[in-house]
Amino acid sequence: MIDNPAGGDTLKINTGGKVGSYTKKKGSGYSLFLAELAQPLNLTTFNQFRIMVKAERPTSFILKLENADNSKRIEETKNIAVANQWVEYTFNFSKVKDVTDLKKILLFFDPGVDTSGGTYLFDNLIIEPSGVCSGVEKNISMLDDFECQRNATYGASGFNDVRVVANPDKSAANDSEKVGEYTDRIGEWHALVIDNNDANLAIADRPIIKIKVWAPVAGTLKFKMEGTGGSKELDRQVTEIKKWVEYSVDFTSEAGKAYQKLVFFFNAGKQPGVDTIYYIDDIRMEAPGSVTLEDFEPTPKQTWESLGAEAVFGKFNGGINNPDKTGANTTDKVGSYTKGTSKLGGLKALLPLSFSLADFPQMNLQVWAPAGAKSLTMKLISVLDGAKEINRPIAETGKWVDLSFNFDNVKTITDFERVEIVFDPDLESTATWYFDNLTQTQATVDPCEGVTPSPYVIDDFDCQRNAQNFLSTDPTTLEVVRNPFPEGINSSANDKVLKYVDPAGAKEWSAIVWDMGKEFDLTSYNSLAIKIYATKAGPVLFKLEGGAQEQVFGEIKAGDVGKWVEYQISFKAAAGKKNTKFVLFFNAGNQSPEGDTYYVDDIEWRREPYTGCISTFETPADNLGTWQYFAAVAREGKRYDIVVDNPKKSALNSSNKVGEFVEEVGGQRWLGMFNDQLPAQVHMGTNKKLTMKVWMDHEAEVILKLERSPNGGPNIGDAIANYTTPGEWQTLSWNYPALNPAWAIPDGTIYSTLTIVMDFQNIPATEKRYYFDDIAIGDANCSPSTPTRDLQVEPLSIYPNPATDELTVDNSVNLFRYELFNAVGQRVGTFVNTGQAAFTIPLNGFDRGMYLLAGYDRQGVLRANARFVKQ
Question: Which end of the chain has fewer CB atoms surrounding its CB within 10 Å, N or C?
Fold first, then answer.
């Protein structure tokens, strides 16, 4: 203890005669001052500490409390920004108010620095109630709210110019009880400095600086970063006076630079006049509320390119002057794109290496669309997970509109490498589009907005939640959670699944019920698929109720525990029985003494698996949907409808329609395409062979693979068949076990993906087009050899055409089922005729465009079809 030395008390806070003095030992980074109390501290109410410190140089110090054996402790570090001045520091230790054996108080000055010594003075160590700040956790974004979050250290100048006072003007803009009062001293550049000493400010994580100001005069509020990395200034004009206004600047451009001081200049560059008192509050460093990827100001930030040849996929016209500086977008520069001849025209750009959806999963874009435009698609391309896309409607054309794309369901994917914009695939016009302000923000739109309910999905626990009522028959836990086991056939950690807890002592027939409120149409889609992750083996019962009940017992085998398994149950016999509910019983017929947990996902109706002919491509019902290219160039990662007219009819293949494979110049030698969205799965019986007809213009190796078996079958590798008849159709065969014993496919294995590689090992000098047809399992024959396939397909008599709300079929007396296909061959509806001569099909809910209506008899044979336009 020494006499309080004169001077160094600008704040006039310590006029006492005696103070404590501590000299740090050189060579000991954590040299300390220790006071051990006779009795433990009672922190129940008194848990806030204040201490005055006067240091001979800027540094930091630690105040720590601990018990006898250091098994319980709390500490906090405070920054000392001003040398040789008495400053009071506050420590809120209310988080340990229930700890009863803390009896040591320790002080560490200049902690962790072995080479430093020096003498430090301290005084007036006080413990007091923390009051309204009790239990308040430190908010790293808040530098100072002048109440409970006093996390800033004010340096020279400014430390003696700011004090806590009652809010003189409480309002909706700032209803805080306490604020800071700042006095602007003489000089044009008098400042308030927040000084972190040697520690860098977290600009990379929190570059947005905000402060609330009540200003007595108009002028310039200057924000400045200073430190070893140099300096950066940003100005905001103060035009509203004698009221609370929040000002904000963005130092994102300074990320990675070493700044240790944040400086505020009030009425910068002006001598203070009569009014020198400013009130300030809520000084914050925040993460950005958005990330700007492209704003074209003053030039493009990304390298935008056409998706392919400009004449086909369109042209990027560069950053241009905004042709319509009204409404939602008044900025100077925007991007311009003119569509080419392809419906799938658009642009692409590589994403920054730092791109992540984790914090900001929503992409936003401003668009000025030409007349006739209805939608825009945004795609994010992942190296491992492929394309993730969202289509959004365009409400108005000829003006700027805001579009938002919520990718929250895929935000755990970390390798998105580029963004693609497809400008309305249904608009054939080659008019010009304008786009601007591509940003990332937190989600503001429902990720399921605009998703059309699928008639075949019961529940995927994401966007296809199609039951009218979802319940359990006994008190239990039904909870939709993120997939806790992202692996195998259900590998997305972002995917939502059902967590079902079958509680201890639950009834033998406890069940989960999906009540659809309408009859299941099991005419074609009558195979129920469901993914289950079970924690124990046992029986499981799948049941349809609401009409003439149908049930199928299954089993979760011991080898299927602890992994995702897809079960497929045939309910073909339930067609027409008017059932409306799907009911699922785990551990059916048994009680569970200890209680069990199961996870469920992707409950949907599928067509019966392919067991013979997979596709002839002759009708939309035979169209396998779109295929996605890989190891390609312009087609890389894109999906295409591959059905075309047969350009090479012959005796071996007189089909009207075939599949087309395009081999680009510059692709990899394994350029190919796959289809992971087959209308049905491929079922392999005892004959483990696939056949396919192929036409090429030269001899080549052709690969046809089966992949992604949901019931554990092996992935087929590069199974090769040799095409040897250039310019002619040839039937190729792949007998997988004969090609490789490792491809010994168990009977009953099902696959969900077909992959084709034509011209393996060769890269052409010019683009090539090859054709394939009649994909079949085993020795099945896809050729039109039966009277069923020889039946003439008659035209349907329909009206009105174009149609708006409904479509009537006149010649329907012999037709049992109708299937509706959109312009790209996707089945979008199924309707059953109960014998009416004039059958009406409702069209509400379907998008505008061209459709094909196909009519089938009770044997499932296509009898008639017609095209129409939905307005």
Answer: N
